[in-house]
Amino acid sequence: MKIGIPKEIKNNENRVGMTPAGVFELIKHKHTVYVQSTAGEGSGFFDADYEAVGATILPTIEDVYDAAEMIVKVKEPIAEEYPLVKPNQLLFTYFHFASSEELTLAMLKSESVCIAYETVEDPDGSLPLLTPMSEVAGRMAIQQGAKYLEKPIKGKGILLGGVPGVSPGKVLILGAGVVGIQAAKMAAGLGAHVTILDVNMKRLRYVNDIMPPHVITGFSNEYNIRKHIQTHDLIVGGVLIKGAKAPKLITRDMLKDMHPGAVIVDVAVDQGGCIETTHATTHEDPTFIIDDVVHYCVANMPGAVPYTSTVALTNVTLPYILKLANKGWEQACEEDPGLAKGLNIVHGKCVYEEINEAFGWEVSC
Ligand SMILES: NC(=O)c1ccc[n+]([C@@H]2O[C@H](COP(=O)([O-])OP(=O)(O)OC[C@H]3O[C@@H](n4cnc5c(N)ncnc54)[C@H](O)[C@@H]3O)[C@@H](O)[C@H]2O)c1
């Protein structure tokens, strides 16, 4: 198969869809790989590294989309890329369709086949291609939150870990999934008080078993959230309902109950965010303030640590890329029901129920 790796053109996105190690495996299996010139540079991989393992370097993004039967990327195509996508072309990347009707309509119109990393499943229902990025974002959420609690950037002026004689900061985490647990681990490591809320008792039991005693678990409901936001300094939004828009757990009216200078890091922004006041921001301009509460809502947090993120992502995507390239998407999905769960759009049809629900589309569009 002819596989194309375009350069990511989303703001400050320095990750790349495949490392030279991945290209090496594909070439070994007799596939042809086209890499856009400088696509890997942001992650520390140079054209010469790709050429050395047998890739063909193409000068423009148009050349790559033109030449490839399968495009392997990191982020969803942005508006400039919509016209480049061809009928029958296979796109394997993060899409997060439920948060963008514009993107969904563009991909429907393209007649391509879109397999979304974020809805590919393991047999136990977990999301293997979301996990490494959630691990990165969860850990980063505390690093960023701690920074924005500093006074010069309009935070409350709190050191999360405290010092002898001064209490540590308080971190509230919504969702005890991958993001939530990694955030809890980092916050607990800094010495902060951590409260983590979820609706899934199994997750809460697990957190309770593995975390130190200064990580407290609680059930996620409106009453508890309203109570906790009044006392916590940093709030991390890490909820997910697979493929659907995130539920709004903190509404606009609740911000007035929070401390001035408190910080929200809404990691779930890529699914619309779990805070009503969330809107997606970029690494160039990551925060905004509403009712004295600092909001950090960068939709591609792992893009800030591209080396770690690219390697972590391609470690898990490569086995699926090999299956798709070796067998074609139809046979690969037939043989692997977990990969088939990644099918979101097929030749102008939206085949993922939650996406149809998100836009109020009753029948497959
Ligand atoms: N901004 C970024 O750069 C970035 C990077 C990676 C992941 N994400 C996003 O972070 C979010 C979380 O990802 P994840 O991998 O941790 O998902 P996950 O499935 O591992 O965890 C989500 C958790 O949310 C819980 N949940 C659902 N409804 C809830 C509610 N009402 N209250 C509290 N908890 C609730 C679930 O029970 C689950 O434990 C996703 O939207 C994901 O796309 C964003």
TrEMBL record:
Residues binding NAD(+): 134, 198, 203, 220, 239-240, 267-270, 298-301
One cellular component (GO) term of this entry: plasma membrane
Keywords: NAD, Nucleotide-binding, Oxidoreductase
Domain Alanine dehydrogenase/pyridine nucleotide transhydrogenase NAD(H)-binding: 149-297
Sites where the protein binds substrate: 15, 75
InterPro entries referenced in this protein's UniProt entry, alphabetically: Ala_DH, Ala_DH/PNT_CS2, AlaDH/PNT_N, AlaDH/PNT_NAD(H)-bd, NAD(P)-bd_dom_sf
Superkingdom of the source species: Bacteria
GO MF entries: alanine dehydrogenase activity; nucleotide binding
Catalytic activities: L-alanine + NAD(+) + H2O = pyruvate + NH4(+) + NADH + H(+)
SUPFAM superfamilies for this protein: Formate/glycerate dehydrogenase catalytic domain-like (SSF52283), NAD(P)-binding Rossmann-fold domains (SSF51735)
SMART domains: AlaDh_PNT_C (SM01002), AlaDh_PNT_N (SM01003)
EC category name: oxidoreductase
UniProt-listed CDD domains: L-AlaDH (cd05305)
Active site: 96, 270
Enzyme Commission code(s) on record: 1.4.1.1
Domain Alanine dehydrogenase/pyridine nucleotide transhydrogenase N-terminal: 4-137
One GO BP annotation of this record: L-alanine catabolic process
PANTHER family from the UniProt entry: ALANINE DEHYDROGENASE
Family the UniProt entry places it in: Belongs to the AlaDH/PNT family.
NCBIfam families: alaDH (TIGR00518)
Protein name: Alanine dehydrogenase
